[in-house]
Amino acid sequence: MRPKLVVGNWKMNGSREFTASLLSGILEGLDGNAAACAVCVPFPYLYQCEQLLAGSAIAWGAQDVSCQPSGAYTGEVCAAMLAEFGCRYVIVGHSERRAYHGESNELVARKAGAVLAAGLTPIVCVGETLAQREAGETAAVVGAQLDAVLELLGKDAVGRFVLSYEPVWAIGSGKTATPAMAQEVHAQLRAQLRACNAEGAEKVQILYGGSMKPENAGDLMAQPDIDGGLIGGAALKAADFLGIIRAAGPRI
C-alpha cells in the first residue's frame, strides 16, 4: 500500500500575515499520526515557510521552476535556489501554467528533470480540458503529457516523482470527477508507468487535483490508484485542509 500525500497549492494567494495564520491553524490541528502533507506556496513566502515549518510534519515547496540551472533568465527561479529554502516538492506542468504561459509537454518534462537534478521531488501535473473530455480524448491527452516526461527522464526516474491528475474542467469550477471517473484515469496512468518501469510504478503517488474537498476526499482516496490530493481552494482554509488530511487516514 502506498502512503497518502495531501499537497496544498496556494496559487497566487497569500500575504505574510495570511501565511502565518494559515500555517499556525494547520499545525495546531494536525494529528501526530496524520498522513503526509505539504504546502506549495508563492516564491516570496518560502523563507517564511522554512522558518515556521522546520521540524514539523508539514513539508513545503514551490509552484513552478525554471528548466535552466542558472544564467541570464530574468524573473526565473532555478531548482537549486528552491533547495536552499528547504523545499521538498515543486509543482510542474500545472494546467494554469500550460494554459496561461503556453508550457509544452516537453518543457514540463525538462522542468521535472531540473527538479530531480537538484534532489527535489517534482509533482508532475497532467489533465484534459472539458472539450477534450467530451471529444473522448482524455486518454490520449494525459498519455502524451506523461509520455513526454518518461521519454526525457527514462525508466529510472519512475518512482522518484509524484504525479497529479487534474481534470481542467473540475479546477475551481465546483465540479468534480466521480471517484470512478478519476480512478479510470489514474489506473491508465499507473499502467503507463508500469509499461516503463513496473517496480517503480508501484511507488509513484498519483494525486487527484480537481476540486477535492473534505466532503468528497474520503470517497476519492478510497480508490486503489488515488494516493492523495493536490488541493487548491480548500488548502486556503485550515479547517478544510485538515479535513482532507484526516480523510486520507493515518500515516503509513
Describe what you observe in this structure:
- The structure is a single chain.
- This protein is of the alpha/beta class and 252 residues long.
- The protein has one domain (5-247): TIM Barrel.
- The chain is 43% helix and 14% strand.
- The chain is built from eleven helices and eight strands.
- The chain has an eight-stranded parallel β-sheet with strand order 7-6-5-4-3-2-1-8.
- Helix 3 links the parallel strand 3 (58-62) and strand 4 (89-92).
Please tag this protein with its features.
TIM Barrel; 11 helices; eight-stranded parallel beta sheet; 252 residues; single chain
Question: Could you give a short description of this structure?
Answer:
The protein is α/β, with parallel strands linked by helices. The protein has helices at residues 16-29, 46-53, 79-84, 95-101, 105-117, 130-134, 138-153, 179-196, 198-201, 214-221, 238-247, and strands at residues 5-9, 36-40, 58-62, 89-92, 121-126, 162-165, 206-208, 228-231. Strands 7-6-5-4-3-2-1-8 form an 8-stranded parallel beta sheet.
So, CATH architecture? Alpha-Beta Barrel
Radius of gyration: 17 Å
Low confidence ranges: none
CATH superfamily caption: Aldolase class I
Q: Secondary-structure element order, as H and E?
A: EHEHEHEHHEHHEHHEHEH
Q: Give the N-terminus to C-terminus distance in angstroms.
A: 9 Å
- What number of domains? 1
Q: Looking at CATH, which topology would you report?
A: TIM Barrel
**Count of strand segments:** 8
Mean pLDDT: 96
Largest sheet: 8 strands, parallel
Structural class: alpha/beta
Query: Proportion of β residues?
Result: 5-15%
Percent range of helical residues: 40-55%
As laid out across the biggest beta sheet, the strand order is 7-6-5-4-3-2-1-8
